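Appendix C: a fully annotated inverse folding record. The material below is reproduced so that readers can follow the format used throughout the book. The structure is listed first as tokens, followed by the designed sequence.
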């Protein structure tokens, strides 16, 4: 049996841009320069760690209370964006792959750093596809630690070597590789150079390839 594990933000839905808008808003308020390139380092990274990085960028040291207030402010801003989400924000051809795997009864899990993963899946109508949800509330060690994916494999009852991970963040690819899973990068090949395979998005992935993955013996070596 093979297991398929999907990251959420930037893989299933285009929420990476909303995270960026919310961090940018806070960064502007604090007078810290923050670009889309800086946002690359925030992908796959926990909310708390993102704020730590932002404050390091601005050379700011703050009290725990202030830190928690900014953390809450960023999330409230982000929640405003996701409150308006619907199925139209599912990334292209994601349903094609999820429906195929579902029709074959292949176990599927979500492996995300986000604490907002469940409500987002509900809003876009994809919650029922997943046999297990491992989100930011379930892990103690963030990507690139493999914990999130190892818990997902365990819940799916599939050995890690028989799992495939779809990820848009370098930290997530590193986590999948550390878990001995096949890592499929979704995004730019230069950013995701450590992935076993990289596709720009799911429109580049055909169902024959997915079928091959469901039959793979073990994680193949990089060609
Ligand atoms: C990850 C995103 O999926 O979730 C990160 O790639 C984000 O950018 C992290 O910081 C935590 O998300 P949330 O929703 O718990 O703030
Ligand atoms: Mg992501």
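Designed amino acids, in order:
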């Amino acid at each position: 049996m093979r297991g398929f594990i999907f990251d959420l933000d930037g893989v299933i839905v285009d929420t990476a841009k909303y995270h960026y808008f919310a961090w940018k808003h806070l960064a502007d308020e604090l007078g810290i320069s923050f670009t889309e390139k800086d946002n690359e380092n925030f992908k796959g990274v926990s909310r708390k760690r993102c704020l730590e990085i932002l404050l390091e960028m601005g050379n700011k040291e703050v009290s725990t209370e202030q830190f928690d207030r900014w953390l809450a402010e960023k999330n409230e801003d982000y929640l405003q964006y996701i409150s308006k989400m619907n199925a139209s924000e599912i990334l292209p051809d994601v349903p094609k792959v999820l429906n195929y795997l579902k029709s074959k009864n292949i176990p599927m899990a979500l492996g995300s750093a986000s604490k907002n993963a469940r409500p987002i899946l509900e809003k876009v109508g994809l919650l029922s596809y997943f046999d297990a949800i491992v989100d930011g509330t379930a892990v103690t060690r963030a990507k690139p630690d493999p914990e999130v994916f190892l818990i997902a494999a365990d819940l799916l009852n599939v050995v890690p070597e028989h799992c495939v991970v779809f990820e848009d963040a370098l930290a997530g690819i590193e986590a999948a590789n550390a878990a001995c899973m096949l890592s499929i990068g979704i995004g730019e090949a230069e950013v995701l150079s450590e992935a076993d395979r990289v596709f720009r998005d799911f429109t580049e992935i055909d169902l024959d390839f997915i079928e091959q993955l469901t039959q793979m013996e073990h994680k193949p070596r990089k060609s």
